[in-house]
Every structure is written in C-alpha cells, then in structure tokens.
C-alpha cells in the first residue's frame, strides 16, 4: 500500500481471516461437524478463509465437540498424491514450528487440548502437524485472535444469539463466516449482523467464481471474482457531448 500510495495507484488486498462457524442447537449435527472439519483441516488449515473458530451453543457443546474431535483423530495424513490422505503437510518447517508455538501458547493461556497438538510420530518425512482441537477457549486468547494458518481449531461456547454475534464480530478479521441452523429466519438475521464479507449457511467452506470474494476490516480491501471484481480493474469515465 505504501508503494501504491506514492503513485496514487489503487490496490486490492486479501489479507487473511479468523473464520467463525456458529452452530446453533437446532443445527444438523453431522452436517455441521463435517463442515467444521473441512473448514479447518482442508489444506492443513492453510487457507485465508479457514474456519478456525467453532462458536457452539452450550446445549450441544459436548456432543458436537466429541464428534468433531473424533473426526479430527480419524483424519488420514499423507502427501498430496496419496489418494487415501485427507490432510497434507504444512508448507515448511518454519511454519510447522510457528503452529506448534501457537499450540503451546494455547495450553499456557488455559485452553483445553482435546486432541492433536503435536507432530505425528508415524510421519518422519514432511512437515506434518496433527489435526488439533482446543476447547474452553475464550475469545481474548491468542489462538482465538491471531491467524495461525495451520490445523488448529478453537472451540468457544455461547448462550444466546446476541453473544454468538458478539464473539464472532470481536475479531480484527472479517473474511468468511459460517452459520449452522435449521431456522432460515435466524440465519438471515445473523448473517445481516455479521461483519464479514462472505457468509455461508449450512455449508463451509464455499466460494464460487460468480460471487465476490473478499472481506472486512484487516481481511483486506476490494473484491475478486464475480461482477464486483471487474470494478477493481476499471475506471469510470464521464463523457459529455454538446449536440446543440
């Protein structure tokens, strides 16, 4: 942005996120668990739109966390050309060490490690990190606020819709958020008040080339994909002709 400012050049920025999956008590458990799993463990969590925060209603917390943790523990690890693998390594040893550092911070700050949290012993080659789930996370903890860019899920509990929105919006990022509920009226209401550039209802993650991709706050500026992306690469010109 500094270089662009010197030349008064417009920029489009995509800067990451800390995506929440908000799961209400009337959600389809299995569908939500699958979406939460895919949202954080796909690409070993190395996605700007990773759903790294699970914000779950207190009435279904125990059951959903158990399902998500079981899925995490059963995730086959392997290389990108391994047809049986469902999660690969992270990009480098430096990144792996950074992820492991965040895991240690999570423990020290009081979060409960449910599963994972280490390097898998059976993977001597490759920069693998176990699919990791933390429970008893509060939204002021480091693992709930900073983008880890790795397979680490933070579980936060809420009592009502208002609290769920407060937790989700209390983030420096605002890229992609997920809502899980069988009540579409609630889904539309919650979506309206979420400070995120993209909202997925009862699925996660999802983006299409035809729809705009981008976020609010520190998640970036401008949009890619969809008709909106065209505006980032064009300028308006006003031409007046006197025909009198």
Automatic annotation (TrEMBL):
One GO term in the molecular function aspect is: oxidoreductase activity, acting on the aldehyde or oxo group of donors, NAD or NADP as acceptor
Question: What are the Aldehyde dehydrogenase domain coordinates in residue numbering?
Answer: 1-239
Q: Which Pfam families does this entry report, sorted A to Z?
A: Aldedh
In which domain of life is the source organism classified? Archaea
The UniProt entry, under InterPro entries, shows:
Ald_DH/histidinol_DH (IPR016161), Ald_DH_C (IPR016163), Ald_DH_N (IPR016162), Aldehyde_DH_dom (IPR015590)
Mind listing the UniProt keywords for this protein, alphabetically? Oxidoreductase
Report the family membership.
Belongs to the aldehyde dehydrogenase family.
Q: Mind telling me what this protein is named?
A: Aldehyde dehydrogenase domain-containing protein
